[in-house]
Amino acid sequence: MDEPEVPTELDPRLLRGLEQFDAGEHYDAHETLEELWMGEVGATRHLLQALIQLTIALHHRSNGNISGSRALLERALEHLAVVRAETCFVDPRELERAVEALRAELVAGAPEEGGSRAPVPRFDAVRARIAAERRARALPER
Fold first, then answer.
1. pLDDT tens for each residue of 98-132
2. Which end of the chain is more exposed for a tag (fewer CB within 10 A), N or C?
3. At the topology level of CATH, where does 8-136 sit?
4. Nearest to residue 75, comparing CAs of 57, 95, 97?
């Protein structure tokens, strides 16, 4: 990284991973977030692990691997359960509700073609907060 040491919540890899996630590039988001996750501990590590599990669950869902997707969503929920407060600008309870809805949908059976799908969480507000804080601290755009 070509910039001064920054906290994880302002790391450009987090911003990039969330951008990839919101763009539906779930496998790429997994790769980006995993780079950041490896050096973390505590709540931040659990949150990042939950996000990584979610990205791959969505990747599996898009490929029709429903059992793999469901298992990863369950593991994401286990990680979110230990995150008590907002971490990296992400509300763990809000994310937990979204993951639970996705899992419930898979448990009930994949929706028919054109049927409703549980909404995939989006991180627009989180990305905006990260970008604003980076600007406020005069950190490079990336």
1. 999 999 998 887 555 555 578 899 999 999 999 99
2. N
3. Hyaluronidase domain-like (1.10.3450)
4. 57
